[in-house]
Design brief:
This protein is mainly beta. It folds into two domains: 82 residues, Elongation Factor Tu (Ef-tu), domain 3 (Beta Barrel); 69 residues, SH3 type barrels, CATH 2.30.30. 5% of the residues lie in helices and 45% in strands. 19% of the residues are buried.
Length: 167
């Protein structure tokens, strides 16, 4: 189990070559971050110093200081590479990480509870928040400014303007 304050940004899938490089599948929208990072935390709590990083096909190849051959990195296979909140790429105002949206309580503009966001669908045009409330059908909320009036991550809530056909 990982610490809830850590966020996965990559997964080590296999050693690459004989000099200790590790093939990493990026789990982030910002894979360039690996090129400038100095350290990364593994899901088991270990912190590794990044010696070098480069792209190779759909992977990022990372070389960790002190792990200098294939055998030394074999045990990294399948491990998640994590950062804490301070290590996240800062998003522009009005943009949020999906893991910050999931779990927020949803209310309409009059204050009536509509459910809790349980998932976010990326449709291409806009995201759709799925809000569920026990005993009711899930509510699909398009993440549009006309619909989502306020997102208050620290307050744990989203305020939405319901469309007439939803009511």
């Amino acid at each position: 189990m990982t610490d809830a304050t850590l966020i996965a940004i990559g997964k080590a899938v296999a050693p690459h070559g004989v000099r200790g490089d590790v093939r990493v599948v990026p789990l982030t929208d910002f894979p360039d971050r690996f090129l400038t990072m100095k350290k990364v935390r593994l899901e088991d709590g270990r912190v590794l110093d990044i010696e070098s990083a480069k792209y190779h096909k759909q992977f990022v190849l990372l070389k960790f200081r002190g792990l200098d051959d294939r055998n030394a990195v074999e045990n990294l296979r399948g491990k998640l590479l994590m950062v804490d909140r301070d290590g996240l790429v800062k998003l522009p105002a009005g943009h949020y990480y999906i893991f910050d949206i999931i779990g927020l309580k949803v209310f309409d503009e009059s204050g009536a509870a509509l459910g809790t966001v349980t998932d976010v669908l990326a449709t291409g045009a806009n995201d759709v928040y799925i809000a569920e409330q026990e005993g009711q059908k899930p509510l699909l909320i398009p993440a549009l400014k006309d619909v989502v009036r306020e997102i208050d991550v620290p307050g744990g809530r989203i305020t939405v303007r319901l469309q007439e056909e939803w009511e």
